[in-house]
Amino acid sequence: MTTIEFKGVTKTFNNGFRAIQRTDLTINPGEFTVILGSSGAGKSTLLRMVNGLETPSQGEIFIDQRKLTPQNLRHIRAKVGMIFQQFNLVNRLNVMTNVLIGRSYYRRWWESLFYLFTKQDYKLAHWALERVELTDKVWQRASNLSGGQQQRVAIARVLAQKPQIIIADEPVASLDPATSLEILGLLSKICKEDGVTVLASLHQVNLAMQFADRIIGIKQGKVIFDDQPVNLLNNSLLETIYDKKEHEKIAVA
Ligand SMILES: Nc1ncnc2c1ncn2[C@@H]1O[C@H](COP(=O)(O)OP(=O)(O)OP(=O)(O)O)[C@@H](O)[C@H]1O
């Protein structure tokens, strides 16, 4: 099981805006850690640094005690599966091919370009689609699926990658409440059954409380809460993580 460490990490964008203040964090192996914070708090920036989609301005990131560098980025990306709010599927391709794309990290670039995958890749893709209960949709175009089904294809693609870490950037922000529960339940199951370290950002406090082993609250790029979910509600920090108005909106929702 794999640990993620942020050591003295900051992120300042080219326009001079500092999105992440100096951060030291260890994300424990095999845990479901949720990052909470209002819009613009820096959740995506923090997550995107784990697989090199953003680079820290200062400090270092370690995956399983191995420092993330441009030289080992491809190797580390193979271990880190990524799930996005907008699913990021190739809409014109069928479900199977989308899932096979998760195997690209283990293929030469031209093999992936021409969708040349091995029997073992197909076997893994089938296994992944079974895990997300989508074997009846294998040959359908991705664009013909519902949002929840598309997110399940994205999870299958990540599973086919055989990741040690899953980074999920607001994975349920585009889904209805029932489908959100289904998707987070699936991620939680994968975390517990496969020993995958999951680091997810969410907007919904109730969902974080239900699924997280640990919640990290950030505000203006700074960690202001880091504890078990049960300690969040006892703590006025919930009002601090979100400004009070937003908190009241969430409570009503
Ligand atoms: N490429 C960039 N250049 C300059 N500023 C950026 C860039 N990307 C993000 N930011 C800024 O950094 C801050 C953090 O952005 P980030 O996307 O990490 O927030 P977030 O917490 O994920 O927000 P949301 O919940 O709305 O997705 C925001 O103020 C954003 O405008």
From TrEMBL:
Q: Which SUPFAM superfamilies match?
A: P-loop containing nucleoside triphosphate hydrolases (SSF52540)
Q: Which UniProt keywords apply?
A: ATP-binding, Cell membrane, Membrane, Nucleotide-binding, Phosphonate transport, Translocase, Transport
- Give this protein's Gene Ontology molecular function annotations: ABC-type phosphonate transporter activity; ATP binding; ATP hydrolysis activity
Keyword Nucleotide-binding included in the entry's annotation: yes
GO CC annotations on file:
membrane
Using the record's annotation, list all stretches that form the ABC transporter domain: 4-245
Q: Which domain of life is it from?
A: Bacteria
Q: Which Pfam families match?
A: ABC_tran
**What's the protein name?**
ABC phosphate/phosphonate transport system ATPase
| Species the sequence originates in | Crocosphaera chwakensis CCY0110
